[in-house]
Design brief:
The chain is mainly alpha-helical. The strands form 2 sheets. The protein has a two-stranded parallel sheet with strand order 1-2. Strands 3-4 form a two-stranded parallel sheet. Helix 5 links the parallel strand 3 and strand 4. The two termini are 24 Å apart.
């Protein structure tokens, strides 16, 4: 997860939403000094995870952030609704050889 959230967001979001239990890495722009949409922010997340950008899918609700992720070789999906995003995530897993066992949940 890459976030441009405010100071104190890590603690507040962890307590409220338990993001730390849902994702492998959370990178906050205020901690790294590099935020979205800077392509270096996306590259930094991939480096921390030890993954290739071309194997990753970024989902965001801002076109500029999706374009920045694509600039470093990531796939990008513009969030518009849950069903479309889930379908795109499923398709990405199939494209990269990691399909979920039962397919999308709809």
């Amino acid at each position: 997860m890459l976030s441009n959230s405010f100071v104190g967001a890590r603690e507040r979001e962890t307590a409220r939403y338990h993001f730390d239990e849902l994702v492998d890495v959370i990178v906050y722009a205020r901690e790294t000094g590099i935020g979205k949409p800077d392509p270096r922010a996306h590259a930094a997340v991939c480096a921390r995870l030890g993954v290739r950008p071309e194997d990753r899918l970024l989902v965001d609700d801002l076109a500029v952030t999706v374009r920045a992720a694509r600039a470093v070789g990531m796939a990008g999906h513009m969030f518009e609704d849950d069903a479309g995003t889930i379908a795109r995530m499923w398709a990405h897993d199939v494209e990269t050889g990691r399909p979920a066992e039962n397919g999308p949940p709809f």
